[in-house]
User: Fold this.
Amino acid sequence: MAGFLGRFLHTLDPKGRISLPAQFRRGRESDPFVLIQTQPEALTLYPDDAWGSVQEDLLEYMKRQPEHRHKVLRITADAVEVVPDKQGRILIPERMRQAAGLTTEAWVVGAINKIQIWDPARFEAATTDETDDDAFDQHMKSVLV
Assistant:
């Protein structure tokens, strides 16, 4: 699998469900995903295999940094497991929709090993970068050769 790539504008239905793009579901039709808010602006949807790696990292971090256990708990307490229905829709809980500013439309964005769900205006603001960043540009030149 090439990972999750691209962005797709989808509508949230009145119940708070959103369809995942067909290419994101292919081969994972009945597989669970973990939906979590990893950053204030967006929601992140991890397929089961990617979530296993994240979970291991979080457990290791809590062992090394026990004073930050409450921060990890704050992130995982609102996480939910979702399985796409037969139409490829997942339900986004109301609290998560509000936190990410999702109303009627959302970008469903491939982020290599995970999927992110963004309010269109927040996505545009976060991805529009007018500043020059020579270190980033140089790194991208070496990665995207």
Summary: The beta strands are 7-11, 17-19, 33-39, 42-47, 80-82, 89-91, 105-110, 115-118. Residues 7-143 form a domain with the Chemotaxis protein chec fold (CATH 3.40.1550.20).
